[in-house]
Amino acid sequence: MAYDEYLADRIKNQLKEKKANFTDQKMMGGLLFKMDNKMLCGIHIDKKYGDSLLMARIGEDAYLKELEKPHCLPMDFTGRPMKGYIFVTPEGFDSEEDLSYWLDLCIAFNPLAKASKPRKKTS
Predict the structure, then answer these.
(1) What is the 3-state secondary structure (H, E, C) of the chain?
(2) Which SUPFAM superfamilies has this protein been placed in (predicted)?
(3) Which of 31, 34, 42, 116 sits CB 3.0–4.6 Å from 55 for a disulfide?
């Protein structure tokens, strides 16, 4: 199953409106959005949930507060939640206003986020 292309277009349009300098990258059936070479947000197909989820990198300060919202889940790929990252279910980003809220949180945290170390290319 591929990622939700309609959601990808919505995210791209909003990031352009916000004048965010971003790139996107396909990853394991999903799509990752990066700003300043750091993960900003993404689209993840969750087999357990059965739908596309918005991955949002919002930082640890916002993490606990946002997890209290009904459409937020801890981002958990390995059985261990990643602090500072959440999944938002489709009901939580259905409107453009809701999607904008999550993207604003991601953009606000981005300058504080640490970039991943680049992987060495193998020949």
Answers:
(1) CCCCHHHHHHHHHHHHHCCCCEEEEEECCEEEEEECCEEEEEEEEECCCCEEEEEEECCHHHHHHHHCCCCEEECCCCCCCCCCEEEECHHHCCCHHHHHHHHHHHHHHHHHCCCCCCCCCCC
(2) YgaC/TfoX-N like
(3) 42
Sign of torsion over alpha carbons 82, 92, 22, 44: positive
For residue 93, the model assigns a pLDDT of 97
Contact assessment for residue 86 and residue 75, using Cβ atoms and an 8 Å cutoff? yes
Using the predicted structure, report yes or no on whether residue 122 has a pLDDT greater than 60. no
Would the pLDDT of 80 be above 70?
A: yes
Pair of tokens at residue 34: 């990066």
Ordered by where they begin, the domains of the chain are 5-112 (3.90.1150.30)
CB of 89 closer than 8 Å to CB of 49: yes
